[in-house]
Amino acid sequence: MSVSRRSFLEMAALSVLPPAPAAKHPNIILLLGDDHRWDALGCMGNAVVQTPNLDRLAREGILFENHFATTPICCASRASIMLGEYAGGHGIYDFATPFSPAQVATTYWGQMRRAGYHIGFIGKFGVGNKMPEDAFDVWMGFPGQGFYFPDGPNGPHLNHIMRDQAIEFLESAPANKPFCLSISFKSPHVQDEDPRQYLPSQDTEARYKNIHIPPHPGAKPEDINRFPPALQHSENRRRWGVRFSTPEIYQASMNGYYRLVTGIDDVVAALRESLSKLGIADNTIIIYSADHGIFNGEHGFAGKWYGHEESLRIPLIIYDPRLPSPAASNRINAMTLNIDLQPTVLELAGLSAGFAVHGRSVSPFLQNPQSPERSIWYFEHRFPFRGWIPSSEGIRTKRWKYIRYTDVAAPYEELYHLESDPIETVNLAGNSSYLSQQKTLTRYCQTWERALASWKPGAEWRDPISQSDLERDGLI
């Protein structure tokens, strides 16, 4: 009888990891926001949004200031977070494709459960049209986008429902096992097709009453005029009209967006209080991140999907109470990626990963902020609805970003020098002074795409472009 590589991988996984005794392994809570961009936090310099509990978590833990999604759409990014793989590796680009049984085996929660962890999931799963409920000890997830008021307009808000579910999980978790709880918020995502867009809970209203939200500091809406028609008439532009086209609509949208972020912050406070009451706070790691960012009007866009900073850059906070209190060096400038979370969670749990992945654990930065860092990475977006959301891919280094659109009527490229143009408004693509950089980054992009296309699950991975390549080609 022949056995596929995927099936072999799945069967081999059953004996990969040793049991995880509770006394030696920490509890882990992984929280994910949805559409929560990096600068919608007080600790990242935002003077309007109210996130005192996430800010406290950042002060007491480690704040990664340059964390990114490799594919800025929830289905692909959440799969990348759970598997530690680029979308080009796991192949999940749409909302219908579920995890295969072999992929379930390689997720961080799949490996942790086999190692003896008590595993729970709460909230928006976001991957596929079939939920792997049986892969969890406690399942309180939901398919699709979900609703902020699932029991009707007079019922409880989803953030409050998830808060109560999380406390229920903590209170009922077996004392003889470590646990891993994944809490996947809908916030601060819009309620698609609802004319009000953002639907925060009522208890956040007073905190934003009479607050004027200043215009975003990024690219102005008129920047849309330099893009080709395929982008000027894309879904991003349609959503901009609904959310940001007038000052009044902008204020309403941003007020709702920030209130939903504050709703997440309130859940963090409740979780920490519950952990303290249960006497397990000192052995529970808390991680906060998001699936991707969002355009809040920059470049004349709303939504996400493209390779600009607003879409790619997201929060990452890791609080490990077992470590000494951090000094002033608890802000990490290194570039980290969503694909790094799977190996990070496994390493923090004290487990040896049973499968090769594309990501790298960021846990060395918890001990040494000067740990080796990546110098280049790849991003992609290949949602299959061509024309509605133009597909794209690109390369980012600390100094350069290259984006190319792969299915628009007229090929379009973007090249930005991030040090001199951090808001990405001066497109250097086609500029004769930068043709060498553009040609090199195009080649890098093609090399990375081919490497992912030829990669097989379980095979060792090495980034196809390295710092030495950047040095050789004058891109450092």
Overview of this structure, please?
With 476 residues, the chain is α/β, with parallel strands linked by helices. The protein is 31% helix and 17% strand. The chain is built from 15 helices and 15 strands. It has helices spanning 5-13, 52-60, 74-83, 87-90, 101-106, 108-114, 158-172, 229-232, 235-244, 247-278, 309-312, 341-348, 364-367, 435-454, 467-472, and strands spanning 27-33, 62-68, 118-124, 138-142, 179-184, 284-290, 295-296, 302-303, 313-314, 316-319, 331-337, 376-381, 392-397, 400-405, 412-417. The strands form three sheets. Strands 1, 2, 3, 4, 5, 6, 9, 10 and 11 form a nine-stranded mixed sheet that branches. Strands 12-13-14-15 form a four-stranded antiparallel sheet, with helices on one face. A two-stranded antiparallel sheet has the order 7-8. Helix 7 runs parallel beside helix 10. It is globular. The termini are far apart.
Helix content: 25-40%
| Rough outline | globular
Helix count from the secondary structure assignment: 15
Q: How much strand?
A: 15-25%
Q: How many strands, which pairing sense, and closed or not: the largest β-sheet?
A: 9 strands, mixed
The average pLDDT score comes to: 92
Radius of gyration: 22 Å
The residue ranges in which pLDDT falls below 50 over 5 or more consecutive positions are 1-23
Q: Helix- and strand-based class?
A: alpha/beta
